[in-house]
Amino acid sequence: MTGATDFHEPFDINDDTLREECGVFGILGHEDASALTALGLHALQHRGQEAAGIVTFDNEQFRAERHLGLVGDHFSDAETIGRLTGRAAIGHVRYSTTGETILRNVQPLFAELEGGGIAICHNGNFTNALTLRQQLIRDGAICQSTSDSEVVLQLVARSREQKIVDRFVEAITQMEGAYALVALTSKKLIGARDPLGIRPLVLGDLNGAPILASETCALDIIGAKFIRDVENGEVIVCTSTGIQSFFPFGKCPARPDIFEYVYFSRPDSIVGGRSVYDVRRDMGRELARESHVDADVIVPVPDSGVPAAIGYSQESGIPFELGIIRNHYVGRTFIEPTQQIRALGVKMKHSANRSQIEGKRVVLVDDSLVRGTTSVKIVQMIRDAGAKEVHFRLASPPIKHSDYYGIDTPVREKLLAAKYGLDEMCNYIGADSLAFLSVDGIYRAAGYDGRDNENPQFTDHCFTGDYPTPLTDLSEDQDFVSAPRLVEVG
């Protein structure tokens, strides 16, 4: 076999990461509903950075603002917030896991039904959305977006149930995959979490106003009280008279996505009763126990590798230093993207702190390894800064399988761990040694003795290939006809 180092691909600073899913927020019964929603979306910005939208209801009509770009680019001025009147609001930040990044795909999506309007936004991915969409179109549905969220609206609209909540429930019981849904009607704020609880959703309260959000950090930013996690398979209905909860799917053991702890959630959030920061730090501790190496300094790959590097340092006794400084203001370069400029891309985002690296044996700690192209550049950058040795440690197991639940992973053929063994990967990134946290190790960091292979405690398909739901749209008997579609060019 040809050496792994012969397969280096052109470097793209934005193409070697697990891109976040989406973030949702909703509040009912507060005079500052739109402003609080904008703040909540600011806190959830890490979950989606391509588009943001807010829909409010002012007792007479729904009002919507949806834009491409960051929350702060569009929802930070008094004029915009002033247009979004009403005491109820839902909001969404998006990364385009399904559907292009175009304005008609930006959520919340809205539909006028027989009983009134409904706005919907969701985090996650439906694994049978294409199948249902094709059936709906065959039955005469007119789809205005390419987002799988619209499928839910179409199913709600076609339900013959009388009550809007019953129509909503009938719709989601037809969906497969992972989702946290938030919907707003003229009288209700509705939340729903998939039967396994793969995607997160929490319930909060601000002076009597109920809140639904993807993470607790969105509650913290507005001074709201965390009440509890929305349970897996739960539908929660908030009105002016109180909160009702029911379980249309029945109850089953939860299997939340373990990647919320590895990468997606903010470190200051509490997910499933666990501090994300504590779990990430303990992943580093476990990593040090499993793959200790003699070294002079522990260096995190910022920012996501920092908690694990702290844990590695604490467990190993090797000093922790910020050997890489991150530029937080980098975006896509405006310079003509020649190969020479692309080769400099990592230096736009990360710079070596030579004073902490030169002449030392360095352990680089990162949260995960995807394509490996960024890791190649970072390892070389550390060597160029004078490191004697560079040992790469990953605070999660090898990512060998693609995600279909709302995380934008590359196709499996482009995942480094799916192509190469450990030695080949080490050779590829140019490190002196390479080690990943074991599957049992990541479970221990989350408070378990290890993975229960009969009844896994988490959804961990990226590591194990164990997909906990049907993947209907990927089945071989599906034949999706690609009809001509509208392309927005300006």
From TrEMBL:
Which reaction does this enzyme catalyse, per its entry? 5-phospho-beta-D-ribosylamine + L-glutamate + diphosphate = 5-phospho-alpha-D-ribose 1-diphosphate + L-glutamine + H2O
Q: Which UniProt keywords apply?
A: Glutamine amidotransferase, Glycosyltransferase, Magnesium, Metal-binding, Purine biosynthesis, Transferase
Superkingdom classification of source: Bacteria
Annotated binding of Mg(2+), by residue? 304, 366-367
Presence of the UniProt keyword Transferase in the record: yes
Q: Which InterPro entries match?
A: GATase_2_dom, Ntn_hydrolases_N, PRTase-like, PRTase_dom, PurF, PurF_N
Q: What is its EC number?
A: 2.4.2.14
- What protein am I looking at? Amidophosphoribosyltransferase
The organism's taxonomic lineage, starting at the top = Bacteria, Pseudomonadati, Pseudomonadota, Alphaproteobacteria, Hyphomicrobiales
